[in-house]
Design goal:
The structure holds two protein chains of two kinds. Chain A is an alpha+beta fold. Chain A has helices at about 15-30, 30-35, 65-80, 100-120, 170-180, 195-205, 220-230, 245-255, 280-290, and strands at about 50-55, 60, 65, 85-95, 120-130, 140-150, 160-165, 210-215, 235-240, 270-275, 295-300, 305-310, 315. The longest helix of chain A has 18 residues, at about 100-120. Chain A starts with 13 loop residues before the first helix and ends in a 13-residue tail after the last strand. The relative contact order of chain A is 0.17. By secondary structure, chain B is α/β, with parallel strands linked by helices. Chain B folds into three domains: about 5-65 and about 175-260, HypD, alpha/beta domain 1 (Rossmann fold, 3-Layer(aba) Sandwich), CATH 3.40.50; about 75-175 and about 300-315, HypD, alpha/beta domain 2 (Rossmann fold), CATH 3.40.50.11740; about 330-375, no CATH class. The longest helix of chain B is centred in the middle third of the chain and has 16 residues, at about 235-250. Classes of the chains: A alpha+beta, B alpha/beta. The interface between A and B is medium-sized, with 25 and 31 residues. The structure holds iron/sulfur cluster. Iron/sulfur cluster binds near residues 339, 349, 355 and 366 of chain B.
Chain lengths: ~325, ~375
């Protein structure tokens, strides 16, 4: 097999099947893909839930993950946040001519890994190779279908509910910025990129009354809370001291002038629960990540807004991030 | 030194609370309330973001000054940037929020969506690299900022000359702090007494004095009887600066003091000052958005470097463009009004669609009030 991906490999001929057989199928084969037909018949599902997302992250490899891991975790997390168990995925690659076969294989391995974590399978897919310069190395699109286990939705959020966050914030965004700006820190920032279904499953199995969940991807924690605040006309009060930001991430924010609240996370989520469940939920979250914390509560003080309480007793709004938060991060 | 050392101590909750107590105690001895103008938008941002107004006693007020280089840029000059960006074969580079500010034709972001090549740089010296990589294009740096960024633009020009670059031009919009402070103190309205300025003291930005020294403020205590404290940008710095000013009033002193001793000296950075003086000279007048024309308040390239001056190489419109009638930015900058007193604050005027200059960059007073609110 050649060392670089060529246009011929995406043209449907001999070379295409080599790419598929030797690489893609080798890592992802299952009984659905083995049928190799134009479309894949699926069994019927209970309360199905469907989502799609595209991934263009630059650079495609970053500390803590790569575009492959991200593409599976990203779509599966969208399902998990709706309380749905990920089951079937579609997977499409658009690859720039000349992309290294070795790197492509690395991406496939991460995909395989992440699918296993979600106990989900790829049932259909596509690979296109485009001339140099048409895309930046590799873009991936995934769609995912899952089965809903609970009815989590922002509509259930009420005054008095507790807000939790599943770890420290802003790692993915800061990691990508550091990689792109070539900022060297004493200790490297690893992305928080991860699949959330295992945590959500535990919460459900342990009987936590989950009101709503949202993974804090683009726009970070600030975007999630502001969207909820606007939709519910409630106030999301966050206690700044309870939100964990790692030293390295804070450092990047200082250099680039960002607030960690607006930077992306790819494996962290905001959880809203009934206050009676907050302690129990926290314990479960902390089993997965010791930085998980109760970060605030839902009130009616400033309808439609998010407030941040400082450690010295002052309060301010945490606004929706606006403008370009520059590079491609997912 | 670790990066962390630069900010951790200066955001320490205990220190901030202790300073708030001390200020309250000192302020209780004041004969009259005092209005402190923080000249720089960076300070406005710190004050609003960290909620410092909520920690101050009732007899200390802030007047949010004009020190945000993006906010004070008049529309006609934003149009220059837009026009230059839309030229064939041009790459326009600029800093920060400048990309989002709308002129009469639109913002640089709009220009970019129409196909213009507009780039955002972190440092003026990045422009040199862009110019080298794009020899067949004209690379124009739309230079903005106070004394802090001016030497970097001069350094860019120096490198461009040394390396005989022929495809790099500068559009200079560098402004200076003392001139606008003087203008604000001197401003009078013959008919309305309340229009006389209300400023009792100044908080000066540390980064400007790192370059220009603390000496640039000496005229204010001497000639105008207004004390100045040069302070850093972290909440502890600002609180300490306020405390130092209040103490001056209580002790009957009126002088320039430096809170930010970490890197401010009286003389400043002589090398940087020489670099500025080598390439730049003062403009007779420069229009500040919201405030009007202020003598000697901005730099331009000396005649000897006119080949590098985008304002001379291109024919750019000179007509002034007025701001929206309802906008009271000028009053806000003079301390006559608070952002929330503007009729269109947060309704017709928001950061996404700013009508006036104070809403433009996150360092503008209206934008900071909108973004962080003035809660409690
Ligand atoms: S809210 Fe807008 S229009 Fe009103 S003073 Fe501020 S910038 Fe001007």
């Amino acid at each position: 097999m050649q060392k670089h991906i060529t246009l011929a490999m995406g043209s449907g001929g001999e070379e295409s099947s080599e790419l598929l057989e030797k690489l893609v199928f080798r890592h992802l084969k299952n009984s659905y893909l083995a049928r190799a037909e134009d479309a894949t018949p699926l069994e019927s599902l209970q309360s199905p839930c469907f989502c799609t997302d595209s991934f263009t992250v630059s650079p495609p490899f970053f500390p803590g993950g790569d575009i492959g891991k991200l593409s599976i975790a990203g779509s599966c997390n969208d399902l998990a946040m709706m309380g749905a168990k990920p089951k079937f995925l579609s997977l499409s690659f658009i690859i720039e001519e000349g992309f290294s076969v070795r790197e492509f294989e690395k991406i496939l391995r991460s995909i395989k890994n992440e699918l296993a974590i979600n106990e989900a399978v790829v049932v259909t897919g596509d690979t296109k190779v485009v001339p140099k310069g048409s895309v930046d190395r590799i873009f991936i699109t995934t769609s995912a279908i899952g089965e809903r286990k609970i009815e989590a939705s922002q509509r259930s959020i009420q005054e008095g509910d507790s807000l939790l966050f599943s770890g420290d914030i802003a790692r993915h965004g800061a990691c990508i910025f550091a990689a792109r700006e070539g900022i060297e820190l004493e200790s490297e920032i690893t992305s928080d990129c991860a699949s959330l279904w295992p945590i959500v499953k535990r919460l459900i199995d342990d009987g936590i009354t989950i009101k709503a969940m949202r993974d804090a991807t683009r726009g970070g924690v600030a975007a999630v809370l502001n969207e909820w605040a606007r939709a519910t006309e409630l106030t999301f009060e966050v206690d700044e001291a309870s939100v964990r930001v790692s030293q390295e991430v804070q450092g990047i924010c200082e250099i680039l002038g960002f607030e960690p609240f607006v930077l992306a996370n790819e494996g962290r989520f905001v959880l809203v629960v009934d206050p009676k469940d907050e302690k129990k939920a926290l314990k479960i979250l902390q089993e997965f990540n010791e930085d998980a914390a109760i970060i605030g509560k839902v009130t009616k003080s400033y309808p439609g807004r998010v407030t941040l309480q400082s450690e010295w007793g002052t309060k301010r709004f945490l606004d929706m991030p606006s403008g370009e938060i520059l590079p491609r991060i997912c | 030194m670790e990066l962390r050392d630069l900010y951790v101590r200066f955001r320490d909750p205990k220190t901030i609370k202790a300073l708030a107590k001390e200020i309250e105690l000192e302020a209780s001895k004041l004969a009259n309330p005092i209005n402190i103008m923080e000249v720089c938008g960076g300070h406005t941002h710190t004050i609003m973001k960290y909620g410092l107004l909520q920690l101050l006693p009732k007899n200390i007020f802030f007047i949010h000054g004009p020190g945000c280089p993006v906010c004070i840029m008049p529309k006609e000059r934003i149009d220059h940037a837009y026009i230059l960006a839309m030229q064939e074969n041009v790459i326009l580079c600029t800093l920060g929020d400048m990309i989002r500010v709308p002129g009469s034709k639109g913002s640089l972001q709009d220009a970019r969506s129409k196909g213009a090549d507009v780039r955002f740089v972190y440092s003026p010296l990045d422009v040199l690299k862009i110019a080298k990589e794009n020899r067949e294009k004209t690379v124009i740096f739309f230079a903005i900022g106070f004394e802090t960024t001016t030497p970097m633009t001069a350094a860019l020009l120096e490198s461009a000359i040394a390396q005989k670059m022929t495809n790099l031009l500068l559009h200079i919009n560098h402004v200076t702090v003392p001139e606008v402070m003087r203008e604000l103190i001197d401003s009078r309205d013959e008919h309305i007494d309340s229009y006389n300025n209300q400023i009792d003291a100044f908080l000066g930005p540390s980064h400007v004095s790192v370059i220009a020294g603390s000496k640039i403020y000496e005229e204010f205590p001497a000639k105008y009887n207004r004390p100045v404290v040069v302070a850093g940008f972290e909440p502890v710095d600002v609180m300490e600066g306020v405390l130092m000013l209040v103490k001056q009033f209580n002790e009957g002193r009126c002088e320039v003091e430096v809170q930010y001793k970490r890197s401010v000296t009286r003389e400043g950075n002589r090398k940087a000052q020489e670099l500025i003086e080598k390439y730049f000279e003062k403009r007779d007048l420069f229009k500040w958005r919201g405030l009007g024309n202020i003598p000697k308040s901005a730099w331009k390239l000396k005649d000897a470097y006119s080949d590098y001056d985008a304002e001379r190489v291109y024919d750019l419109p000179k007509e002034e463009i007025e701001d929206h009638k309802l906008c009271i930015c000028g009053d806000i900058l003079r301390g006559m009004a608070k952002p929330t007193e503007c009729q269109v604050f947060g309704t017709a005027c928001t950061p996404a669609k700013p009508l006036g200059s104070c809403m433009v960059s996150s360092e503008g007073a209206c934008a900071a009030y909108y973004k962080y609110g003035n809660l409690l």
